[in-house]
Amino acid sequence: MEALDAFASRFARTSDIFTQKVVTTLLQLLQEEHPTFIDRMNFCEKINAISSANNMVEIRALRNAIAHEYRQANLMELYGKILENEPELDKSIELCRQYAASKFPGI
Hints:
Radius of gyration: 14 Å
Order of helices and strands: HHHH
Number of helices: 4
Number of strands: 0
């Protein structure tokens, strides 16, 4: 349980940093304004900076469940969903890295 708890915490932190810092910075560099999380993810999917906006919305919901409702959630179900979505988060991070490298080679 301790390892799963640590994994869940890292997943939440990684998804938060990616969606709130990395994606936001990318959009600022592109001079794009998208007011909502869903708008930002849809735009990123459109430019191939993430693989799926829907999956990122689900990852964000998992992050919120970890951060705000952790004690009330069915932990085994939550851990299962995290394990299911972790490869998608990794894939989107890599796509975003590749996109940013292609648009801003010196950064």
